[in-house]
């Protein structure tokens, strides 16, 4: 992963937030300013990691340069595995600790949860896809973590592609009307449209959408939708999907299942920093 300027700005803002214009009063009081140490970022559980480059960037931001990467993003790790090691000024290591862990743990949580979903649909053509339900300011990083977990990304922003949802349809007067308006104004854009019923699917299919989102339909309805479409466009199922029924949706023949939980409900992956004084 190549971090962007906005990623570095986010890292700097996180460190500034932690210091709040002051200093780490606990470390200043207890640790000599010239003291050095070694520390390991260690997995406390099994899962898939993401964000190791972000953790490294946090360490460098506070002046640490002796950094050794042990694992890589996308790796499956076990409890006790060392992921990243750092040597240098002890105060600097502890200043970076929480910010680095916040990023690393959050992104590894997304990757680990995504991996669980991907395993549920293994052996089918269905791909697990994320949404825009991301933490403000962290979309690029969280969508990267989805990829590290084996998932795929939906659009990154509102201008990447059109997604005509129920409120757009209501405002425009129907699925055909909404689709026609988007196609007229943005003839070269990819257009996905949401339908709530199979009748809406039949209505919009002649308009040649790139993708149709089947909203809150059962696996049986998705199977019927696949037969109706017969390869004319791709289908994505969304709503009411859980890890327990993900495989049933995947076996219906849809191309994607859209899972907002990958980013908005991923449990933080437990990573710790173990300090070893030199």
TrEMBL record:
Residue span(s) of domain Quinolinate phosphoribosyl transferase C-terminal? 110-274
The signal sequence is none
Q: Name one Pfam family in it.
A: QRPTase_N
Quaternary assembly: Hexamer formed by 3 homodimers.
Purpose: Involved in the catabolism of quinolinic acid (QA).
Q: Cross-referenced NCBIfam families, in alphabetical order?
A: nadC
Question: What name does this protein carry?
Answer: Nicotinate-nucleotide pyrophosphorylase [carboxylating]
Q: Say which species the protein is native to.
A: Candidatus Planktophila lacus
